[in-house]
């Protein structure tokens, strides 16, 4: 377990968009729009998928929850409005699909640390039932787990009106809320991406190819993804950069390599971390120099 994680647990309140879909054709409609296969989902199932444009580039990352006769789609706050507009445009005139903005109704949290289960057990939650493919119902809350590079995160969706009470109970059990800068420092060391790292990029470039199911049938961008999959070559990849110096967001020219694009940055003590789209030819390097002769290390986000 990484030493930079809290010995107990910490919670981060995500800035997410919430879209609620209903109607007999809602699941089939979403299945046509997203990269993952959804037609087999049942009540309380969880699935993560991408919403891409016709060029195969990511518009949003969506976490799905099937709840009785509704589907809750959790996405990025930044992309929420455009995601709903895209989903609306794809509804056929004869389809039974309703779509509601739930941004102010549902909150989304992530709990992380070296001993998450101890904090949750204090709430009376049976952590043995947590799963990455299912949502666990606890009162009016839904809990599920996810794993990145062997580090587990527990995600929670709950009514906005119950957010503060839930945070208070977590704090009573040793799990404190953390600000965005601390979350960024942790998630970047772990290998977790946010919308700033993936939007406008191809899933294969940012390590999200596991969310693309090429055998599911047509969806926006499917032909582009299939072509890239068959070629097996990418022009660039998202990498983690480490340096004693601060990084600057945006494009940087690197002599002998080309252009890299820094998507996220964070600082933790004397270590500065960035995510950057790096030309594939440079991804095997142990270090490179950008701006002011700064020497930085390169690491893949996903550790196999």
From TrEMBL:
Question: What InterPro entries does the database record attribute to this sequence?
Answer: TrmE/GcvT-like (IPR027266), YgfZ/GCV_T_CS (IPR017703), YgfZ/GcvT (IPR045179)
Q: Which UniProt keywords apply?
A: Mitochondrion, Transit peptide
Coiled-coil ranges (or none):
none
An example GO BP is: iron-sulfur cluster assembly
Compartmental location: Mitochondrion
| One GO cellular component term | mitochondrion
Q: What is this protein called?
A: Uncharacterized protein
């Amino acid at each position: 377990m990484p030493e930079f994680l809290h010995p107990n647990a910490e919670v981060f309140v995500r800035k997410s968009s919430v879209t609620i879909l209903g109607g007999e054709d809602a699941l089939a409609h979403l299945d046509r729009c997203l990269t993952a296969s959804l037609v087999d989902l049942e009540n309380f199932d969880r699935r993560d998928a991408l919403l891409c444009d016709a060029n195969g580039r990511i518009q949003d990352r969506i976490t799905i929850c099937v709840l009785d006769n509704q589907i809750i789609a959790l996405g990025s706050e930044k992309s929420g409005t455009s995601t709903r507009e895209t989903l609306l445009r794809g509804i056929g005139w004869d389809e039974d699909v309703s779509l509601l903005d739930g941004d102010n109704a549902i909150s989304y949290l992530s709990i992380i640390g070296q001993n998450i289960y101890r904090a949750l057990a204090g709430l009376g939650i049976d952590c043995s039932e947590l799963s990455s493919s299912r949502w666990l119902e606890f009162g009016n809350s839904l809990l599920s787990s996810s794993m990145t590079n062997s580090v587990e995160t527990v995600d929670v969706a709950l009514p906005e009106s119950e957010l503060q009470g839930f945070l208070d109970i977590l704090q009573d059990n040793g799990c404190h809320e953390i600000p965005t800068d601390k979350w960024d420092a942790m998630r970047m060391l772990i290998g977790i991406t946010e919308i700033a790292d993936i939007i406008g990029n191809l899933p294969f470039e940012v390590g999200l190819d596991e969310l693309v199911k090429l055998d599911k049938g047509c969806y926006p961008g499917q032909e582009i993804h299939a072509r890239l999959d068959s070629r097996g070559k990418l022009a660039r990849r998202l990498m983690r950069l480490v340096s004693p110096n601060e990084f600057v967001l945006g494009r940087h020219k690197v002599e002998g390599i080309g252009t890299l694009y820094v998507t996220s940055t964070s600082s933790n003590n004397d270590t500065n971390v960035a995510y950057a789209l790096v030309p594939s030819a440079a991804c095997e390097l142990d270090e490179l120099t950008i701006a002011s002769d700064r020497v930085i290390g390169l690491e893949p986000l996903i550790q196999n």
